[in-house]
User: What shape does this take?
Amino acid sequence: MKIIAGNWKLNGTLHALRHMIDALDKIDTQNTIIICPPYTMLCTDSGRISLGAQDISIHSNGAYTGDVSAQMVADCGATYTLVGHSECRQYHGDTNADVRAKASHAIAAGLTPIICIGETMDEKNAGQTMTVIEQGLGECIPDHAPRFIVAYEPRWAIGAGITPTHDEIAQTHQFIAETLTRMGFAQTPILYGASVNAHNAADIMSIPHVDGVLVGGASLKPDDFIPIITSVK
Ligand code: PGA
Assistant: This one.
C-alpha cells in the first residue's frame, strides 16, 4: 500500500475537483490518495479521497491578511497539509524554521503535515544533497512530532520533466530513512516527488523506502493521475 498525493498548485476549479473525485471513486485500489487543491476547494465532500492544503500560515489567527491557518484547513474537513514545498521556499521565502513552526501548527490542529525537503541544482552540483537533506530533517521536524510524512523533492527536478536516477533516489531515500530512525521517527512514510508520471511511477515506487509519491503536473487530470495510482498495489 502506497501514499499517492497530488499537488494542484495554482490550478483547477471546483468542477475539476469534483470530476477527479468521481473518477477516483471508481478505481479499485488500497493506496491512500490525497489531493492538495487550492484553499477555495478544500471544503468539498471528497469521500474516501483525503484532502490537504498546499501550505498554512505560520500564525494561528490575527491580523495577517491573506493567510489561512491550520485550524481553518482542519475546519474544512481536510486532514493533511504540505509544508515547506519548494515553491513556498522560493517565492514566499519559507525557511526551515518557518516549516517547523507550520508543521507544529498543523499537528496541533489535527492535520498530518507533509514536510517537503530537497536540494537545488547548485547544492546538488556542489555535492551537498545529503547535507541539505540532513539539515532539513533536523530543522523542519518538530520535537516529539506524533505524526508526519516526509516528501523528498529534488528542487531542480520539480516541473522540469527530469528525475534523478533510480540509484540516486535509492541512496537519498535510504539516507532519509536512516536519519529518521536515528531521530526516533523510524515509521515515518517517505514520499518521492518531482516529475512523477505514469511512465516512471511504478519504477520509483519499487525503490526501498519510497512509500509513495507527491505528484504535481500529472495529478491534474484523471487520465494522468489514475495510471499512477493503479501502477502499484
Ligand atoms: P511536478 O511537481 O510533479 O510537476 O514536478 C511536484 C511537486 O511540486 O510537488
Remarks:
- The first helix runs from residue 14 to 25.
